[in-house]
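not sure who needs this but someone in the group chat was asking about Glycosyltransferase involved in cell wall biosynthesis from Paenibacillus lactis so here u go. i didnt clean anything up, its just raw.
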Amino acid sequence: MVSISLCMIVKDEEQVLHRCLSCVSHIVDEIVIVDTGSRDGTKNIARSFTNRVYDFEWIDDFAAARNYAFSLASKDYILWLDADDVLLENDQQKLRHLKDTLDPSTDSVTMLYHLRTDEYGNVTFSLRRNRLVKRSRDYRWIGAVHEYLEVYGNIIHSDVAITHASSEIDTDSGRNLRIYKRLEASGEAFTPRDLFYYANEWKDHRNFRKAIEYYEKFLETQSGWIEDVLAACSRLADCHHELGDAQASFEASVRSLQYAAPRPEFCCRIGYRFLEKGDYTTAVFWYTLATGLELPADHMGFQNASFHTWLPHLQLAVCYDRIGKYELANEHNEKALSYRPEDATMLANREYFRNRLHPNENDL
């Protein structure tokens, strides 16, 4: 059995830190907490779990803080979490089993990161991250903002999931944007990844024209990670939509086909444009394609399962209804309901199609 150091950086996390540490403290062998300037009770909570609580002067550099935390670890492997992350009970069991059975030749273990779920428990937005890494490999974090862990070697993909469960309060929503703006003003040379995440910050702050500018700069480099490239196309489509330019939004979705085979999200986006135009046959083609394009379990990029599950089936129900193919419309509405069994719109559709297909039943 391998040993594990949990390494975290925190600041003003008193609302969520106890919840995070409680779900993992009984599994790891060591907890290292690096505080970057808390003014609340964060450090007191941390000390109730570990005596290894350290201060790090904040220098607008997340990688520097994480690398310092990693340097303090002493066990075989390092697990990293953010304070608003949790392991649900089933995933705690999976992590314990992983710890008991992990081959020591493993350099890194990826875990699912569930960022968003719907009211039915379906994961609607997720990705994979390298979460558990061999300490002796001395992997380094890179990037002042939206930092990433540079990992190579023998990597395995686990079924352990970390669930993001943020608090209601965002302590500093403008922090990342301020850091990027300062770096830009200082003449810092941005990598393609920096340009992508800088664009994301502008989008999150609803400055869609600035976001478009930096997504375009990112794509012009022609050297970004393919998953970021596709995400940039998606977010360009969102920005143009917010600015009321439906054609530019559509073109951003089609642009994704230059870079990779069709993905479910873009099939749905393209399908919706044809549905809006009343070209239901073409819309059916794209939505049907979306239903058969589930990404592999070890996919490292962002995933929104809605785009290959209930959403295209619901839209297929709409399309087939518009062209009078009610049996097909009903079949797809039922498939959509299998993912969202209490969805009011789909339940209303069920009644509508029942009346369409069996108009005389209510007269009995």
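also The radius of gyration is 24 Å. if thats useful
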